Predict the 3D structure of the following.
Amino acid sequence: MFKMWWEIKGHLEVKNNKLYIGGKSSEYLAKKFGTPLYVLNINRVKENYLRLYYSLQKYLKRQLVILYSVKANSSLALLRVLKNLGAGVDAVSPFEVFLAKLSGFDKEEILFTGTSVSNEDMILIGRKAKINIDSLSQLERYAKLAKRYGFDKKISIRVNPEKGAGFISDCITAGKEAKFGIPKKDIFFAFKRALELGLQPIGLHQHIGSGILAQDLNIFLKAAEAILNLAGKLKKKFNLEFEFIDLGGGLGIPYKSSQEVINLEKFGKNLGETIEKIASKANLGNFDLYLEPGRYIVGDAEVLLVKVVDVSKKYVNEIGVNAGFNILDRPARYKTYHEIVNASRVKGETKLYRISGNLCESGDVFNETKYKLRKLPFIKEGDILAILNAGAYGLTMSSNYNLRPRPREIMIDKNKVKIIRERETFNELIATQRR
Ligand code: LLP
């Protein structure tokens, strides 16, 4: 039979016209654990991690370190697995740092890259993570705090290179319109100032954006070339030894059939060879190469299962499900496409549908927008729908809007299924309020 574009052997499969995740029937999981339900297939996470790691490491003469970006998915069970695989962590808030520590990561394995960073933030993370400086103001303030509290003199500095890339403008994090990092024109001053302040810059970082696919990989490669050349000049001018150069995250995954999977073999070769060429020409020594992927590691490894609770012919075929943008915000926030599969009837005669959430907002739909109906096989009440590619920026961007609890999350590990996060209760939702 015809394959669906999203089928992945051992991960997402169709058997008897029903959707299976990691060998388990979605309908069975939905019934056993309740819906809405996040289903994380950790086997897929491992595959993604190892594929990325080896495709680049084999072209490098230095150590590649993958700092997993916790903001994509902050489940403890996931972090523990990544720790065992040898990953480090990219953290953006004090609590992300605390979570990384709780999962077993050491200070040396955690890089804190904040923005609008307060002194309070820096005091909280000071002894728990390496720090990546985002602005000249932060640099001055960190130097003072480091003296006062005895924090590390070693720092990394984030540069904002001139050109970014990403799936929408708000996910492009480099260039004149982006708030992040120190503008390239000020970077020599930043290093000079860091040295004057008694700090020791040992890292150089950039992150150009998120959701970068094949057509934009060239921008990533050019940016990698640029940061290495910049590191070479900085090293020469200030006589530095870089311990690491961090290219950030951003590698995308296909959310719809027209988007291509990144050809990692080719990408790894291009990137690895470029890096080694410049590193040797610029005499950059034996620095580690860091990457900070989030989406690439977890994006396609998790599925959100929801139940069809209301089927009505209104002005369009309106399908009401038992979750809303509080559970998965990406379609509503970014008008972005997530594949929706009828897990109870993967193929069949199709109709145009709007898949609507249970929040009291017109924009609460899982289609790209409320105007774009989705062609899906016949849907009836009680069907289980699977929203694919929900692993990155799914649960981490969820909320309690409309006083709805966050859902359960389960993990499939080889053949076993376990609950890794409980559904929130009413009491938990109001726990911080004074009565
Ligand atoms: N490093 C830094 C400094 C970042 O700011 C980010 C993401 C990453 C790494 C990881 O990027 P990734 O490899 O996952 O693309 N909420 C949006 C994505 C925002 C990304 C923010 N920064 C979404 O749902 O698509």
About this structure: The pocket of LLP is lined by residues 69, 71-72, 90, 113, 171, 173, 207, 210-211, 248-251, 292-296, 330, 392-393 (CB under 6 Å). The first strand starts at residue 12 and ends at 15.
